[in-house]
Write a structure and sequence with these properties.
Elements: H1 3-30, E1 36-45, H2 47-61, E2 68-73, H3 79-89, E3 93-96, H4 98-104, H5 121-125, E4 127-131, H6 137-143, E5 144-149, H7 163-167, E6 171-174, H8 182-191, E7 196-198, H9 202-212, H10 227-269
Parallel strand pairs: 1-2, 1-5, 2-4, 3-4, 5-6, 6-7
Helix pairs in contact: 1-10, 2-3, 2-9, 8-10
């Protein structure tokens, strides 16, 4: 699939959801639903990245009370295996549907169902949700402040489309192994270097998410003008610019091909 179509498809998806869900979205926003500044989503992650994301949550939860990490694996059938990994690491975790994950953001801070009452408060409030269904990434991007796009953190990774995360105004993170999406990263960063934050390994991932999700106390890192907000704005602006170019290029190509086809047809029916 040409790269410009990936931008165009994401743009079309955003427009479609806005028109079809506009009323319900405006109602939920009126009730206070929106991006959670203590939540991030690890999207389309592969088995090689699972423990890195879980360890990131474990380390960051000590500094960010109430942190919520949403894991949407590339293959949803991996959900149970990820849950077992999380429990071995001592991470409070629950496997949920995409609808449940999205709904949890409208009712305040998420707490895992059935968390033992004897656990420390931090453990009960710092939760990991593992999504075992497909089709909910756009909605999850709209709920979370930061998105790490998987398939990029290990050698041989082929990457995934970053466009929808950028369109949803997430601060976008990815690894350095983006495969065919490396050009998209380059284009977005050429538009604005803050549009995509590439990390080399697990330690850099932890550092990046930690910086972006710092509490507002002290340095006001997530407040107006802070790094989180500036990277969210850069990602969204870069996406808008590139998707507009992509749509225009797509239509120009389509018109040219239709015209060529029309000329061929007209010549084929001319009397000899």
């Amino acid at each position: 699939e040409p790269l410009n179509l990936k931008y165009a498809a994401a743009a079309a998806g955003v427009s479609s959801r806005i028109s079809s869900q506009g009323q319900s979205q405006s109602q939920s926003q009126g009730q206070g639903q929106g991006k959670r500044r203590d939540a991030w989503v690890a999207a389309s992650i592969h088995p090689e990245e699972e423990e890195a994301v879980l360890r990131a949550h474990l380390q960051l939860a000590d500094k960010r009370r109430g942190l919520t990490t949403v894991i949407a694996p590339r293959h949803p059938e991996r959900a149970e295996a990820i849950m077992q990994r999380a429990r071995r690491l001592g991470v409070p975790v629950e496997v949920v549907s995409g609808d449940t994950a999205v709904a949890s953001f409208s009712g305040g801070r998420y707490e895992p169902i059935g968390a033992p009452a004897g656990q420390p408060t931090r453990s009960r409030r710092a939760a990991v949700m593992i999504v075992n269904t497909i089709g909910h990434l756009p909605a999850l991007y709209r709920c979370c402040a930061v998105a790490f796009v998987g398939g990029t953190l290990y050698s041989g990774g082929r990457g995934h489309n970053l466009a929808e995360a950028a369109a949803a105004k997430c601060a976008v993170l990815c690894g350095s192994h983006c495969g065919p999406f490396a050009e998209m990263v380059s284009q977005m960063c050429a538009n604005d270097p803050r549009a995509v934050w590439q990390v080399a390994d697990e330690d850099e991932l932890i550092g990046a998410v930690g910086r972006l999700l710092q509490p507002d106390e002290g340095v006001h890192a997530t407040g107006p003008g802070g790094e989180l907000e500036s990277r969210q704005a850069a990602a969204a602006a870069s996406f808008r610019s590139l998707s507009t170019d992509g749509v225009e290029e797509f239509w120009e190509t389509l018109k040219t091909r239709l015209l060529m086809h029309s000329n061929l047809v007209s010549h084929s029916v001319l009397p000899q």
